[in-house]
Write a structure and sequence with these properties.
669 residues, alpha/beta, L-fuculose-1-phosphate Aldolase, Rossmann fold, 4 domains, 7-stranded mixed sheet, 7-stranded parallel sheet, 25 helices, binds nicotinamide-adenine-dinucleotide
């Protein structure tokens, strides 16, 4: 393991020990082999003047909710050291009381809650304390004879602590075990199945001790033939990373739906089929070794104890998710006390044999965290197998961690979710006007969206991980099919289709209508929508409350002269929508149509067009814009609101409808 310490960079943090604490915490947090997503914690002990001008020893410890990788000074909670040290001597303390007391001992009530390891940090008699869940060290402790191996590697310079629950019990255990010892004889402390602590009066030395301890563990893995690269080399199955068989994406969408139903909310399913993931998923004994438990108990609230195991070819009547849920309930019943309530029984990740790994999350962030944890877990499992076999903690210890009140509190913070959280939408014509407004509103309501447009400006337009931007001409069937597949591959399924791309073709009377104008309108405004539905239906069928929203036009109920190519195509599109509603009802897919009119904040309308139209009516542009029954201007956002209503709860019982968004039009009414 390489030290990331730079004297030049550290210089910028040299004005206070807290600033240096920030610097070295970030170094730890930026190495995923040390800590992952909010894992690990660090502290620094300072003396500060209190309100009465007296010196007071304060522990600045990582606040909960902060990530070491990008922590700031305000991410550390200042707690009176004497109170924390006193707490370590208590006979008993529930963890919720510990949290309450820690908070009450803070000198800044606006700081975040101190880490649940604050008491432990307080009793370690050094200025800087660093704590990580280093993969290499935990891997060794999770193999047979782990404790002896740690002793063999580090000799007497390391304190070894058997596994106990984190929080007060851990702090108390270490307090008892270390009474009267000379801490200066130790470089660090290994907590079996949990992680590593290092400490020193200088930030750099404490950090360097962590790097040294982890490096020695990595060297040991190397000498035992358990280095990661060896694992990769030895067990390559020859599978081509990234490939899925025919029907594989539909199977993915089906599994995602089953997991969402079990979880009680929509989820994304991220497929990881890198070489490392497919290699692991291709191991003959993968089901046995993946089923032994997590890398560290800290991961269990994110990943649950076990992954779902999926067969390479998933059939329609596959019961894997159901079986997983039953087994989870049994696990709960075996371990729970009377007051505990069972969490949802859905898996958080899956090993899809021969195909790769899946991570399920209500947000892409959650799924991403789970994907990272599972990637690290499979590496550690394979290394530990080379050390004689992966040995995780007993089930009861893992259960206690999963149902630990303090861990549960972390998860229950964001209970209310936007309407489309976890849902997956595809919008065409997304670079401008109505399509763009639909993407914005779907995002605002929590969805992930594939945004498709012929205009290359779509690339980089939204620039966020919830949007898959695809430059694609909807009249190019092969490209369109590929775009739909890419959407399912990226997010795990499809729930909402807003088929919107369209062009207003030139004003030409029927007599003079060119073949090109007619054909272009038919291709873009009609045929492409049929093709898109055709490609999406197999996935929508496995969608969550799936819906298709079709953007037609007021020209359907109230055509105008000169717009035959446009109106005929839009009328055909409306008829297509009606037939789709009839055909897809049995699959619970709702199909509804919007007829917008005179939506001026779009690409079809230019300033010149507006001026000339207004002039021809002898009114101002402003009057022309509100030239409807409600005397109101209709915007892209208004159409997007209707599209979201149709895709959501409001239209849950409606299909085959046509709704005007036009401010009221006499000819339509
Ligand atoms: P817009 O021009 O602002 O947006 C249309 C988008 O579709 C553009 O980004 C364009 O690049 C894209 N597009 C065009 N051809 C494409 C193709 N072959 N492949 C992929 N993308 C393509 O116009 P808008 O008003 O937002 O139009 C959206 C829909 O609303 C259209 O179907 C249009 O017919 C319909 N509509 C608009 C109005 C209005 O007054 N604006 C009225 C009735 C209906």
């Amino acid at each position: 393991m390489k030290s990331l310490w730079s004297d030049t960079a550290a210089q910028q943090f040299a004005d206070s020990p807290l600033a240096l604490r920030v610097y070295s915490s970030r170094l730890l947090g930026r190495d995923p082999d040390l800590v992952l997503h909010g894992g690990g914690n660090t502290s620094v002990k300072l003396t500060e003047k209190n309100l009465f001008g007296e010196d007071e020893a304060i522990l600045y410890v990582k606040g909960s909710g902060w990530d070491l990788g990008d922590i700031e000074a305000e991410g550390f909670a200042p707690v009176r050291l004497a109170v924390l040290q006193h707490m370590a001597g208590l006979e008993q303390l529930t963890d919720s009381d510990m949290v309450r007391l820690q908070r009450a001992a803070m000198t800044n009530p606006y700081a975040p809650n101190p880490s649940v390891e604050a008491v432990l940090h307080a009793i370690i008699p050094f200025v800087f304390v660093d704590h990580t869940h280093a993969d290499a060290v935990v891997t060794i402790t999770n193999s047979p004879g782990g404790e002896e191996k740690i002793r063999e590697i580090y000799g007497d310079r390391i304190l070894i602590i058997p596994y106990v629950m984190p929080g007060f019990i851990l702090a108390k255990t270490i307090h008892e075990l270390t009474k009267g010892i000379d801490w200066s004889l130790y470089d660090g402390m290994v907590l079996l199945n949990h992680g590593v602590f290092t400490f020193d009066d200088e930030a750099q030395r404490s950090y360097q001790k962590m790097i040294d301890i982890v490096s020695r563990a990595e060297d040991y893995l190397g000498t035992q033939g358990a280095q990661l690269n060896d694992v990769d080399k030895d067990s390559t199955t020859g599978l081509e990373a990234g490939s899925l068989p025919a029907g594989g994406l539909q199977a993915l969408a089906r599994i995602r739906k089953q997991v969402a139903m079990e979880r009680g909310s929509a989820v994304y399913a991220l497929l990881e089929n890198s070489m490392a993931a497919t290699t692991f998923a291709g191991l003959n004994d993968v089901a046995a070794i993946a089923g032994r438990g997590p890398l560290t108990p800290d991961h269990i609230i994110r990943t649950k104890q076990l992954p779902l195991i999926l067969q390479p070819d998933i059939t329609d009547d596959d019961t894997a998710v159901n079986d997983y849920a039953k087994a989870y309930r049994n696990y709960f019943e075996r371990n729970a006390s009377a007051q505990q309530v069972c969490l949802d029984c859905a898996p958080r990740w899956a090993v899809w044999k021969k195909r790769g790994l899946l991570a399920f999350g209500r947000s892409l962030k959650e799924a991403g965290i789970i994907a990272d944890i599972s990637t690290h877990t499979i590496k550690a499992i394979q290394r530990a197998e080379k050390l004689g076999g992966w040995v995780a903690l007993p089930e009861k210890d893992l259960f206690d961690m999963e149902y630990w009140e303090l861990e549960q509190a972390k998860l229950n913070k964001n209970k209310t979710q936007p309407e489309f959280q976890g849902k997956i939408a595809l919008v065409t014509g997304a670079a401008s006007g109505i399509g763009r407004a639909c993407v914005d509103m779907l995002l605002q309501k929590g969805a992930a969206v594939a945004a498709i447009d012929i205009d290359a400006k779509i690339n980089g337009l939204f620039h966020r991980e919830e949007v898959l931007e695809i430059a694609c001409d909807v009249t190019d069937s092969a490209a369109l099919k590929h775009a739909v597949a890419a959407t399912v591959r990226r997010f795990g399924g499809l729930d909402i289709l807003v088929t919107n791309a369209g062009i207003f073709t030139a004003n030409e009377n029927i007599e003079d209508l060119s073949d090109d104008t007619w054909q272009l309108s038919m291709d873009v405004n009609l045929t492409s929508h049929q093709r898109l539905m055709q490609y999406c239906i197999p996935f929508l069928r496995h969608g969550l409350d799936p819906a298709i929203v079709i953007i037609a036009s007021k020209n359907v109920p109230a055509p105008g002269p000169g717009a035959a190519a446009y109106s005929a195509a839009k009328a055909g599109l409306t008829q297509l929508a009606r037939v789709a509603a009839l055909e897809l009802g049995k699959d619970n897919i709702r199909v509804n149509t919007i007829h917008p009119n005179a939506v001026f904040d779009t690409g079809v309308w230019t300033e010149e067009m507006l001026q000339s139209r207004a002039q021809s009516y002898g009114i101002s542009v402003e009057e022309y814009k509100a030239n409807n029954i409600l005397h109101t201007e209709v915007t892209s956002k208004n159409v997007a609101q209707m599209a979201c209503a149709m895709a959501g709860e409001t239209f849950a019982k409606t299909t085959g409808s046509q709704v005007a968004v036009d401010g009221g039009n006499e000819r339509v009414i």
